[in-house]
Amino acid sequence: MLQLARRLSLLLALLAASRLLAEPSAASPLNATALFAAHLKVVGGEAALAGIDSVVVTGTFSLRGQEASFEFRARTSGAFLLATRGPGDASRRYGRDVRGAGWVDQDGAVAAMSPGETRRWGLLAFAFLPHTQYPWRSALADAVCSEFTQGPDQLVWVKHRTRRDFPPLLFYRATQRVRRIGPFELRDYRFTEGVVVPFLIKHGPEARFVVKSVAFVAPLDDAQFEAPTTGAADTSANRGFSVSPSPDEDHARPAASADGADGRSQNAGSQKP
């Protein structure tokens, strides 16, 4: 009888142990550095990204019912040039040269761009060159993470308590991809040239970039990012497409999307938007 009781006790202990092994372990604390590294891995991996220095992106840009064509050039050094051409050939170019100085050219009227606006437009490059050594990457270890649910998605919101130059990041918990960086919401991820990039980028509730082509190219020449030397700023002109988020926009917690899109990955190859 005693032997039977011992066997029963041992059996119960084994069953309890098996249940513990079957249960998922407690979730590890959210870590911004690990989330960022996971994003780099799922969009291509270090090997594929390491060989990319420059990108040229083309497509259409729409704002409040108006549509323009756009071309975006960027390098991992931080230099970029965004050019739009809208109705009546109204043009606007936003740039940052290789020295880090920002400028804007509106129909030939050239002016310096504020550091904040230069930094925001520079975040557009993250969609295509996420492996760039952005200055704020050094602060990832001190960023605060919080998890929440929005519709069918589990999301992780990452921001820094003190650094204003740190862009808030929103990650999909399941896919580990970035859904939003600063004012730019990244949607419709697709496979192209060995990596995965978004083909739809929303900029606030009324503006969006629809990507038509992405080409990773040899290092672009420094001169392409220099401000034009002719023309003077005309602050009364407001032609073209000027989209500048308010200083606090980048640090607001995201609200539910009006269109209900969840941004799930699409491995669409050469499919056009």
Could you name the ranges where pLDDT drops below 50 across 5 or more consecutive residues? 10-27, 231-242, 244-251, 256-273
Shape: globular
Question: In what range is the share of β-strand residues?
Answer: 25-35%
What is the chain-wise order of helices and strands? Answer: HHHEEEEEEHEEEEEEE
Largest beta-sheet details: 13 strands, antiparallel
Assigned CATH class: Mainly Beta
- Chain-averaged pLDDT: 80
The main sheet orders its strands as 6-5-4-3-2-1-13-12-11-10-9-8-7
In the CATH classification, which architecture applies? Clam
Helix/strand-derived class?
A: alpha+beta
Q: Assign the CATH topology.
A: outer membrane lipoprotein receptor (LolB), chain A
Total domain count: 1
Query: End-to-end span in angstroms?
Result: 75 Å
Radius of gyration, whole Å:
23 Å
Count the DSSP helices: 4
- Helical fraction: 10-25%
Extended strand count: 13
Characterization of this structure:
The protein has one domain (29-251): Clam (outer membrane lipoprotein receptor (LolB), chain A). It is 16% helix and 34% strand. The protein has helices at residues 2-22, 32-42, 46-50, 115-122; strands spanning 54-63, 66-75, 80-85, 91-96, 102-106, 109-112, 144-150, 153-159, 169-172, 178-181, 184-192, 195-203, 207-217. The chain has a 13-stranded antiparallel beta sheet with strand order 6-5-4-3-2-1-13-12-11-10-9-8-7, with helices on one face. It starts with a helix and ends in a 56-residue tail after the last strand. Residues 10-27, 231-242, 244-251 and 256-273 have low confidence and may be disordered.
